[in-house]
Amino acid sequence: MSESGSGRKRVEAALAAAGLDCAVITYPASTRTAQDAATAIGCTVGQIAKSIVFRAARSGRAVLVIASGSNRIDETRIAAALDEPLDKADAVFVRAATGFPIGGVPPCGHLSPPVVFVDRDLLAHKVLWAAAGTPHTVFQLSPAELIAVSGGQVTAVV
Fold this sequence. Notes:
CATH architecture: Alpha-Beta Complex
Distance between the termini: 39 Å
Structural class: alpha/beta
Mean pLDDT: 95
Radius of gyration: 14 Å
Oligomer: single chain
Helix content: 25-40%
């Protein structure tokens, strides 16, 4: 099985384990960025639950912020919620910590569970779309399902 296929399978298994019946959809065009995903899906950028990974500066833990695609994350706000400074996470760290490439990091199915923050602005939407392990796969879910499957703490990220 290809690496991207195994990532998708891990996401599907995590969704099933959480009791969610979410179909993973593959697009020929990239869904790597929030704008790319919204264009491919035909939804608003705000409905894209984009996953941004940071590295906690002191502990080295992975910190996943799931934000509305239309929002820019205020790192200072997330660091305060974490009670630890944040560092940028490079592609090597993201893949090692989550098992997924940048542009395909889902809200679940990670190799090691990250600390997760969910953008409260996502709660304004009935339908959200999240990455499913590759830069070409996504799945649809509700805000409540996103919180449940990610184990995330809802917070203001902007």
